[in-house]
Design brief:
The radius of gyration is 18 Å and the shape is globular. By secondary structure, the chain is of the alpha+beta class. It contains 3 helices and 6 strands.
Length: 130
């Protein structure tokens, strides 16, 4: 891999699944828009979102089909892959623009309830109702 990318984000919409013809037969690609937030500390020392960026994420094969089945808008995902940039034509202006896309090796669903218990020690000490 040239540009390794690892990030957590939220799906901005449904996963689009496409079946395409290739040299070795048909293959499957899933496309999804993911918002990756940037976090920082405010003056009180609390974490807050200080920015973020959207990326188009693609994944291929059986993993693409699994993403289409299991991931919904708003899902928290961990994306591991490679950033690639290329030139594309803007549909509205007709100008050439640079586009950055992530070609994923893995996309994993993050379980937010477990995250909140693990990363907030004060909550981990509380008893969970049965």
């Amino acid at each position: 891999m040239q540009n390794v990318f690892i990030g957590k984000g939220n799906l901005g919409g449904p996963v689009e699944l496409k079946r395409l013809d290739g040299r070795n037969g048909e293959f499957v690609v899933a496309s999804m828009r993911v918002m990756f937030a940037r976090w920082g500390q405010n003056e009180q020392g609390d974490l807050e979102q200080v920015g973020g960026f959207w990326r188009e994420v693609e994944i291929y094969g059986e993993k693409a089909e699994a993403c289409a089945r299991h991931l919904k808008k708003g899902a928290r995902v961990l994306v591991m892959g490679e950033e690639r940039d290329f030139m594309a034509t803007d549909k509205e202006t007709g100008e050439q623009v640079q586009v950055i896309k992530i070609v994923a090796d893995d996309v994993a669903l993050q379980l937010s309830r477990i995250e909140s218990i693990v990363f907030q020690p004060s909550r981990a000490k509380e008893e969970v109702p049965a």
